[in-house]
């Protein structure tokens, strides 16, 4: 049947009408994309309805230290969460309507009370000053208070006016598209589609934002939003003037409005269970620790013991001395009085002295003077409290022997306020070369400067990184007595830039670099002197570092200043790279503070930073590093170091991938924190899928100077061809002595791995539970390995010992050990070399359980290739390196010729020995042979 065309016309009209209606509905229901002011308004409106706020972010305390935090703030201001520093320091914070409570580990107290760190560890203290907490009034930042700070409604907040928002970038948070908004001062990341919620915020705060007063948390209700920045009542007894001053802060007067805190943080709404848990946790802690003492009272309650020894000229066979012990503190003093003289310890007696009391004891020593002669002797005495000074009497006696009076003040500090074990360790490290032959003048000067330096570091809140640098690594280079005096002067007044340079020096030293900080670098055998913020002697870099907390103009000004200083005389030694490093505080008022590398590159083009590239005879700098805190995948600000060269700043290239790859190699060499987060100690990537700025992490190899480079930099020679593995069980170890040694080395490696794993978990999630796990791992490590750096050498030693004491003796009976000459950096040499009974030479590559044959740049005829261990090309490369050292090491030259001849006549074998994983017990090893003939 055929229908009339009239029906087609009617259906067409109907369809057109439906399309028009649908289009009109779409226009009405889906208006155009929201403008930045509309997005900010929608986000702050949703924020006011939240049941609480969970903050996960970063701030800077009064000492310039970077503090990470994860805190939940309920609507009534009740707050609970954790605080952390990269060093492994962490603390729990609980804020109730009536007081603030804090419990930190010993590392946390290193910054504020190093002399009492062990005594304060894991104990709740009440009402600590804000300088100790590291955050200013964050419990005030309830949902309504945060919304007011972002919208400019509070006249005492950071803006004081309605904000004018613009979009400065786009990002994603937890996989959700988001927009970055700024008004030039404030920053906010808002979800790009409904529901519009704030995901991350940046508030610059103001000079008074870290006052010492503990607030009375304000309830969060829309009709009392003007009260949320008002300071609560002062608790004078709970405030320590010394702490407030050391933090560089001035208390907020009662009744004065307190500004919003400086803040760079991801924000999210906690669920009902989390808010309930926060409230219950704080109530439980507040109730169960009713008697928690204010920090100032707890520190003041320490014993304050004065010890006086009286001795006179002695000509009798025995010589007496009188010791008077007075307790000037407010707590009972229990310890041991130790007296030393002429290599003797005539008194080692326990004693207890009540507050305000005193005790008198007598020490009798043997007269060691030869008949008819008089010899000068020095009596030393100390009141040794193990609970304060640590369980190490040998350390105490060592310091006494050098002349320290350990019950007297360091600098202008109160006596026992600074005599905890960490302080004694630092004094020990700074005076290790003081001995019997040291002149009285040098001894007196050194003890005085060392003591004042330690006191300065305590007052400046910079004890922690210096302790790590000097005690845990021993990689700080100091130019004699003048260098020690320079350190004392430097530490008397530290800027934020000085602190950041010190922290970086500690990180570099922990990775095995020799550094110069706080004193003049005087190269050995040269009359020249060089003074800079930091000299990396191993990496051959001079670093001028500037901390910036202001706006973009301040960033540019600091960068120009660093470039100018690097161009000056007496700053950069010959052959050193010039590095200008700008630390932009996470709470700085510049939009650059929260920018990632891509956003920085765009801004730098606008700011024309390339104009600073031209220097006399070449680029004015080799690397410009900018530390910023862009939001990570979950919105939490993440410390990021972006590295730029003049080639990039001057380039108009659109594809930045080459520069990003170069940046990653630079950070492999010069950013230990980044390196260990992304690579294992032997240079293997922790994950093959990890990318940064859209570029996959490079596979690493070593160049001819033992520096890490990208394996892709040069073409590769053929890889290793290995025989099947042969296993050697622990039961076949030759004797009990070797078995015990291997078990001990395996246990040390297991302890090192446990600490590394705990550190990685801590970096991923700085929770109280992970902090406690890290504490336990660190305590075990220090008990077993002391101050030995936790680096790849511990695992390598297991591989080397497996080969030397087990696998090689069993597989090659009669193999004779050949001692190989050492090299300056441990590179360009084989691990082990043996001579077999038939004259064959045996090269051994010894590896830890997770180790594999590595790649490096070749030498000689292989100089333009990457060569792998366990190959002929690698053997020839090492032989070439040994020949190059012959003028300084003739034995290297002889061994090189022997190896070359053995290789030529096929009398050379090359084996790989790997230790097996066995936890804290030795589990044997494996052997594979490489095809090199």
Q: How are the strands ordered across the major sheet? A: 6-5-4-3-2-1-11-10-9-8-7
Oligomer: single chain
Distance between the termini: 91 Å
Shape: globular
Structural class: alpha+beta
Uncertain regions spanning at least 5 consecutive residues: 1-5, 24-30, 154-161, 206-259
* DSSP helical segment count: 26
Q: What about the largest sheet? A: 11 strands, antiparallel
Mean pLDDT over the full residue set: 84
Give the tally of β-strands: 37
Helix content: 25-40%
Residues in β-strands, percent: 15-25%
Radius of gyration of CA atoms, rounded to a whole number: 33 Å
Task: Please outline the helices and strands.
Blueprint: H1 5-29, H2 36-47, E1 52-60, E2 66-74, E3 79-84, E4 90-95, E5 100-104, H3 106-109, H4 117-120, E6 125-126, H5 130-133, H6 143-151, E7 166-173, E8 176-182, E9 187-191, E10 198-203, H7 241-246, E11 263-268, H8 272-288, H9 295-300, E12 305-311, E13 318-327, E14 333-341, E15 344-353, E16 358-366, E17 380-384, H10 386-389, H11 393-402, H12 421-430, H13 440-460, H14 463-473, H15 480-491, H16 496-510, E18 515-516, E19 534-536, E20 541-548, H17 552-566, E21 577-584, H18 597-607, E22 614-615, E23 618-619, E24 623-628, E25 640-644, H19 646-650, H20 657-670, H21 672-678, E26 691-692, E27 695-696, E28 700-702, E29 708-710, E30 726-728, H22 736-764, H23 768-785, H24 792-811, E31 816-818, E32 832-835, E33 841-847, E34 855-857, E35 866-868, H25 872-884, H26 890-904, E36 908-915, E37 925-929
Parallel strand pairs: 20-21, 21-24, 33-36
Antiparallel strand pairs: 1-2, 1-11, 2-3, 3-4, 4-5, 5-6, 7-8, 8-9, 9-10, 10-11, 12-13, 13-16, 14-15, 14-17, 18-19, 19-20, 22-23, 24-25, 26-27, 28-29, 30-37, 31-32, 32-33, 34-35, 36-37
Helix pairs in contact: 2-6, 11-12, 12-13, 13-15, 14-16, 22-23, 22-24, 25-26
């Amino acid at each position: 049947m055929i229908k009339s065309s009239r029906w087609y016309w009617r259906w067409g009209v109907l369809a057109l009408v439906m399309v028009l209606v649908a289009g009109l509905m779409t226009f009405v229901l889906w208006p155009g994309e929201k403008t930045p002011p509309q997005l900010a308004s929608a986000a702050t409106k949703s924020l006011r309805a939240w049941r609480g706020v969970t903050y996960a972010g970063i701030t800077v305390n009064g000492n310039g230290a970077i503090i990470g935090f994860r805190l939940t703030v309920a609507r009534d201001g009740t707050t609970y969460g954790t605080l952390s520093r990269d060093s492994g320091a962490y603390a729990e914070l609980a804020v109730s309507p009536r007081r603030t409570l804090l419990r930190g580990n010993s590392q946390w107290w290193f910054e504020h009370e190093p002399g009492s760190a062990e005594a304060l560890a894991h104990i709740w203290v009440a009402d600590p000053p804000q300088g100790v907490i590291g955050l200013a009034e964050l419990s005030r930042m309830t949902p309504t208070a945060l919304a007011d700070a972002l919208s400019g409604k509070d006249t005492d907040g950071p803006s004081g006016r309605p904000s004018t928002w613009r979009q400065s970038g786009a990002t994603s948070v937890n996989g959700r598209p988001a927009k970055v908004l700024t008004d030039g001062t404030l920053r906010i990341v808002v979800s790009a589609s409904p529901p519009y919620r704030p995901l991350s915020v940046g508030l610059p705060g103001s000079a008074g934002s870290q006052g010492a007063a503990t607030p009375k948390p304000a309830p969060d209700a829309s009709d009392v939003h003007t009260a949320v920045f008002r300071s609560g009542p002062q608790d004078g007894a709970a405030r320590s003037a010394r702490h407030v001053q050391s933090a560089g802060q001035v208390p907020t007067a009662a009744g004065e409005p307190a500004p919003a805190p400086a803040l760079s943080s991801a924000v999210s709404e906690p669920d009902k269970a989390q808010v309930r848990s926060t409230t219950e946790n704080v109530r439980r802690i507040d109730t169960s620790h009713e008697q928690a003492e204010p920090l100032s009272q707890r520190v003041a309650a320490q014993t304050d013991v004065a010890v006086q020894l009286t001795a006179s000229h002695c000509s009798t066979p025995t010589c007496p001395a009188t010791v008077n012990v007075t307790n000037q503190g407010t707590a009972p003093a229990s310890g041991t009085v130790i007296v030393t003289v002429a290599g003797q310890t005539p008194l080692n007696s326990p004693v207890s002295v009540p507050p305000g009391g005193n005790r008198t004891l007598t020490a009798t020593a043997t007269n060691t003077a030869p008949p008819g002669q008089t010899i000068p002797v020095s009596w030393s005495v100390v009141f040794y409290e193990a609970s304060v000074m640590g369980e190490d009497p040998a350390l105490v006696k060592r310091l006494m022997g050098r002349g320290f009076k350990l019950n007297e003040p360091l600098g202008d500090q109160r006596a026992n306020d600074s005599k905890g074990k960490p302080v004694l360790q630092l004094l020990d490290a700074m005076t290790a070369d003081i001995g019997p032959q040291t002149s009285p003048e040098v001894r007196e000067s050194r003890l005085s400067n060392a003591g004042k330096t330690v006191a300065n570091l305590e007052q400046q809140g910079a004890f922690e990184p210096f302790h790590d640098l000097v005690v845990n690594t021993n990689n700080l280079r100091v130019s004699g007595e003048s260098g020690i005096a320079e350190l004392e002067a430097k530490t008397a007044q530290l800027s934020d830039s000085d602190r950041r340079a010190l922290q970086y020096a500690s990180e570099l030293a922990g990775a095995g670099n020799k550094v110069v900080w706080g004193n003049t670098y005087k190269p050995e055998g040269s009359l020249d002197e060089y003074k800079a913020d930091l000299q990396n002697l191993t990496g051959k870099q001079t670093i001028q570092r500037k901390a910036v907390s202001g706006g973009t103009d301040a960033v540019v000004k600091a960068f120009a200043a660093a470039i100018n200083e690097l161009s000056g005389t007496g700053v950069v030694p010959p052959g050193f790279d010039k590095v200008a490093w700008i630390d932009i505080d996470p709470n700085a008022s510049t939009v650059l503070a929260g920018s990632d590398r891509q956003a920085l590159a765009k801004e730098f083009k606008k700011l024309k930073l390339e104009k600073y590239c031209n220097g006399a005879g070449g680029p004015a700098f080799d690397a410009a590093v900018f530390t910023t805190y862009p939001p990570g995948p979950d919105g939490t600000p993440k410390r990021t170091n972006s590295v730029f060269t003049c080639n990039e700043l001057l380039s108009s290239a659109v594809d930045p991938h080459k520069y990003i790859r170069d940046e990653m190699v630079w950070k492999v060499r010069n950013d230990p924190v980044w390196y260990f987060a992304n690579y294992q100690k032997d240079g293997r990537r922790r994950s093959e899928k990890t990318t940064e700025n859209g570029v996959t992490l490079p596979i690493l190899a070593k160049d001819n100077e033992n520096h890490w480079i990208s394996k892709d930099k040069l073409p590769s020679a053929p890889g290793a061809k290995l025989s099947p593995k042969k296993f050697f069980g622990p039961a076949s170890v030759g004797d009990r002595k070797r078995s015990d040694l291997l078990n001990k080395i395996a246990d040390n490696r297991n302890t090192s791995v446990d600490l590394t794993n705990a550190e990685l978990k801590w970096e991923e999630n700085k929770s109280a539970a992970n902090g406690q796990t890290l504490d336990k791992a660190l305590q075990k490590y220090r008990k077993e390995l002391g101050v030995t750096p936790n680096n790849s050498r511990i695992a390598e030693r297991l591989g080397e010992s497996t080969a030397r004491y087990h696998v090689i003796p069993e597989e090659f009976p009669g193999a004779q050990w050949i001692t190989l000459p050492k090299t300056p950096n441990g590179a360009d040499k084989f691990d082990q070399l043996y001579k077999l009974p038939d004259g064959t030479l045996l090269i051994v590559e010894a590896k830890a359980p997770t180790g594999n044959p590595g790649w490096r740049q070749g030498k000689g005829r292989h100089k333009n290739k990457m060569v792998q261990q366990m190959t002929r090309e690698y053997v020839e490369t090492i032989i070439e390196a040994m020949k190059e050292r012959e003028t300084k090491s003739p034995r290297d030259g002889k061994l090189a010729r022997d190896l070359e001849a053995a290789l030529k006549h096929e009398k050379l074998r090359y084996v790989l020995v790997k230790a097996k994983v066995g936890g804290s017990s030795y589990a044997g090893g494996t052997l594979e042979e490489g095809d090199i003939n």
